[in-house]
Amino acid sequence: MSPTVQPPPADPRTRATSDGTAVTITGWRCTACHYPMTQQVTACMECRGEVEETTFATEGEVWASTCLRVRVPGHQPPFAVAYVVLDGGPRVLVHTGGDQPLAPGTRARVVAVSETGDLVAEPDGPVSAQEVAS
Amino acid sequence: MSAYVYGVGTSHFGRQPGVGGPALAQQAVLEALRDAEVDSVDAVYAGTVFGAPGTAQRALQSVGITGVPVLTFENACATSSTGFHEARHAVLSGRYERVLVLGIETMTAHFNGPITPEETDAEGRAGLALPGVYAMVASRYDHLHGLRPEALAAVAVKNRRHGSLNDRAQHGVEVTAEEVLASRMVADPLTLLQCCDISDAATAAVVGVDRGRTRDVRIAASALRSGGLWDHRSDQPWGYELMGQVAADAWAEAGIGPEDVDLFEVHDAFTIGEITATEALGLAEPGGGQDLVLSGHTTLGGRQPVNPSGGLLSRGHPLGATGLAQVAEGVWHVRGEAGARQVEGARVAAVETMGGGTAGIDGNGCVVVVLGG
């Protein structure tokens, strides 16, 4: 019952493209209840209504953050990550560069897609000392 | 009508490469059968998270349990708690008179270090390993309530002190708050001594109808849910609302509240998990879990000890076996058989297990069990 070698699974992460200067985050939004979804769906996860492809804002508010300092396959520690609630939804997981997590409650903007395929965000606007989580 | 725990058993907990599931299961099942004073069961509700297909049957034949229905559950960290909950309902419904519940996990066969995030999960693929999940809980908790490092450290100090009294625990060495906070950072703000270890172990319980024996422990309630959508509309840390909903279900069924419970075994996979669990269970107000542990209320000798076994932080975390280990601890205390870590006069114990790992929902599954009373 050992599995044979299989191709890697479909990438379940938020879909985004970058033209080198701007990032476009794509997903689906319900035409009835307007629920935003980053997972590939054929019906709304909330109300099972019809969905249509859409783009989402690249700016939002940091909801929580941390820096992982242990070995994780495909990622070189340390790496900081954050949940960012994009304006109008949804909430996405982003990498934020370096090892200092962004402070919850501050603004961030998705600026790139990393070589590993992850969203990369930066503080939106000048960084003050208070914006970096202690 | 109630279902009862007739007997419990566990293997030793620890990194035991090469021992294998069947050998671990023999230790747990034979102890549980002896404890229950039975030699057969009507069915087996087994659980494993990472085990290969047939793990339960492979282990059960080694203890002579064949020819009965065997079901295998998977519900992340709440796997064997889920099996326990379902076995109880199988007994209550009259389907079976006596069910063996088995949790079995050989994590060193799958991981050299921390659990590898699931590639098919959106956040797992992005590198959010489980320490990161709980670190995000800590970050959000800090944003909502302010999180004091000394409160996190107090959980680790308390549980590792409790674990020093548990000869089955993987890590039974006392530590100081300074050592906890100075240990290597894993995922800010969680340091190494605030994280449970992977473990190989098996756990077992025999659940059955009322047979009129005083030593059997009544299951006063059990509740299980998986989490709702946890998204941009959510204000609370991951798992908090799910734990609260399941606890409310359990308190309603048991007809008691957290103030009536003598001891708790909760899911302290990481220190912050115990703080949020105690609040979700109603032991403290939101934000009050820190003062609860710092006050000594939850230490052995305090008003309501939490994790007298040492918790996952001391015992280790063999995912599919952990829930029944918590149940076993509760049973031992209610019977007065917990030895050096006995909670004096314990009559009611509550168990909470939280399983996670799926992005987008508030938890794969949470189980709360109330024993005794």
UniProtKB/TrEMBL annotation, chain A:
Q: Which domain of life is it from?
A: Bacteria
Where does the ChsH2 C-terminal OB-fold domain start and stop, copy by copy? 56-112
What organism, scientifically named, is this protein from? Nocardioides cavernae
Q: What is this protein called?
A: ChsH2 C-terminal OB-fold domain-containing protein
Q: Name one Pfam family in it.
A: OB_ChsH2_C
Automatic annotation (TrEMBL), chain B:
Q: Identify the residues that the record assigns to the Thiolase N-terminal domain, covering every copy.
A: 24-207
Q: Name one GO biological process term.
A: lipid transport
Record-level Gene Ontology MF annotations: acyltransferase activity, transferring groups other than amino-acyl groups; lipid binding
Q: Give the enzyme class.
A: transferase
> Mind telling me which InterPro entries this protein's record contains?
Thiolase, Thiolase-like, Thiolase_C_2, Thiolase_CS, Thiolase_N
Which EC numbers characterise this protein's activity in its record?
A: 2.3.1.176
User: Which key words tag this protein in UniProt?
Assistant: Acyltransferase, Lipid transport, Lipid-binding, Transferase, Transport
UniProt keyword annotation of Ribosomal protein present: no
Q: Tell me which CDD domains the record gives.
A: SCP-x_thiolase (cd00829)
Query: Domain Thiolase C-terminal: where?
Result: 241-357
Looking at the record's lineage, which domain of life comes first?
Bacteria
Asked if the record carries the keyword Transport, the reply is yes
Please report the name of this protein according to its UniProt entry.
propanoyl-CoA C-acyltransferase
What organism does the record attribute this protein to? Nocardioides cavernae
